[in-house]
């Protein structure tokens, strides 16, 4: 895009540095909002926005990609910045934050390993395949990717479980595991009641009774 503007390679590198700095800022803001508004709303806002901006990248590329309209080309570049910002806002933090939260302890290590292999493996495939797609399909490549994101928005809306502000045990309960830890009262925990009853403790062969009073008087 910058080449079509007649910009020099040095200027192109500067723009890429600015783009990466912009993505870093958006990722930090997204990390903050992942805790305040929640994982699911964060992912929905991010995916809806990046889908809109990706459609606009495709439309602007079709109209101005081979034109001499400087304003149109700058508009296309602006859409790229907005698309990357929207992606960084949600998916950069959530790609590493959400998987370990929704994986049960017994499969977490395997799940995270599969997540990393899949994420970086698919990224590697995209790096080498997208240039061929752009050469063959041009602006339609952006529309194809944006259309796929519509399916992703539906998946997030209907199937994602909110994990913000919940313990790992409460998240397990959201997936149907009502007793992730033996003897734990999930309903009491959900209500913020930590005093879950009386526990018997074996000490030197003698039984003593200890009442859990956490949360009382606090």
End-to-end separation: 60 Å
Secondary-structure arrangement, i.e. CATH architecture of the largest domain: Up-down Bundle
What is the topology, as strand order, of the major beta sheet?
A: 1-2
Enumerate the spans where pLDDT stays under 50 for 5 or more consecutive residues: 192-218
The helix-and-strand class reads mainly alpha
Q: What is the total number of structural domains?
A: 2
* Secondary-structure element order, N to C: HHHHHHHEE
Q: Largest sheet, if any? A: 2 strands, antiparallel
| CATH fold-level topology of the largest domain | Growth Hormone, Chain: A
User: What does the overall shape look like?
Assistant: elongated
Helix content: 55-70%
Secondary structure layout plus pairing:
Elements: H1 9-36, H2 39-64, H3 70-102, H4 108-137, H5 140-159, H6 168-174, H7 186-190, E1 197-203, E2 206-212
Antiparallel strand pairs: 1-2
């Amino acid at each position: 895009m910058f080449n079509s503007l007649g910009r020099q390679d040095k200027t192109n590198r500067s723009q890429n540095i600015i783009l990466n700095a912009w993505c870093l800022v958006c990722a930090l803001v997204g990390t903050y909002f992942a805790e305040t508004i929640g994982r699911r709303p964060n992912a929905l806002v991010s995916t809806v926005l990046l889908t809109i901006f990706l459609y606009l990248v495709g439309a602007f590329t079709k109209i101005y990609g081979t034109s001499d309209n400087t304003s149109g080309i700058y508009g296309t570049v602006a859409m790229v910045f907005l698309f990357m910002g929207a992606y960084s806002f949600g998916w950069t933090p959530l790609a590493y934050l959400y998987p370990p939260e929704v994986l049960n302890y017994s499969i977490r290590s395997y799940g995270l390993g599969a997540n990393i292999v899949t994420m970086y493996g698919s990224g590697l495939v995209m790096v080498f395949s997208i240039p061929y797609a752009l050469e063959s399909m041009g602006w339609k490549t952006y529309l194809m990717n944006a259309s796929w994101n519509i399916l992703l928005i539906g998946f997030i809306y209907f199937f994602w479980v909110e994990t913000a502000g919940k313990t790992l045990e409460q998240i397990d309960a959201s997936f149907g595991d009502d007793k992730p830890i033996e003897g734990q009262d999930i309903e009491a925990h959900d209500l913020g009641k930590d005093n879950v009853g009386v526990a018997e403790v074996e000490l030197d062969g003698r039984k003593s009774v200890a009442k859990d009073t956490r949360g009382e008087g606090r």
